[in-house]
Amino acid sequence: MPLCGLIAGRILCMHGGLSPQLAAIDQLRNLPRPQDPPNPSMGIDLLWADPDQWVKGWQANTRGVSYVFGQDVVVETCQKLNIDLIARAHQVVQDGYEFFASKKLVTIFSAPHYCGQFDNFAATMKVSEDLICNFAMYKPTSKAARVAAGNG
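^ thats the sequence. predicted structure below, dont judge the formating
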């Protein structure tokens, strides 16, 4: 399974986030498959890096793996790779999706009521042939419905 995908050369998708090692799209195309990425590596960053509104540049991630990166990194990466959007997951966001860096990055989280600890919505993103992104939001089920289904 690839660590990332590129939609029409304009939307870069991954589970985690960006890597300070990423300088060109061809690096992503040339990542070996299958792989168990070593730590540290670009593969680990694609899986575990996170955006952080309070960070400029790169900082160590408090998760203990990879980095957090700022809005400046997102804007620079989009320019360098000639892409319009970075779509990623890996973090709970209240409304199921959340933009970052002037809508150059979107976090999409598709698990409502995550781990029974959050009252978050889930979301999916649909990309049209014209690369217009639309989002569907999914409300978490009520506690009564979860109990009735045995998922209390």
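The first helix runs from residue 25 to 29.
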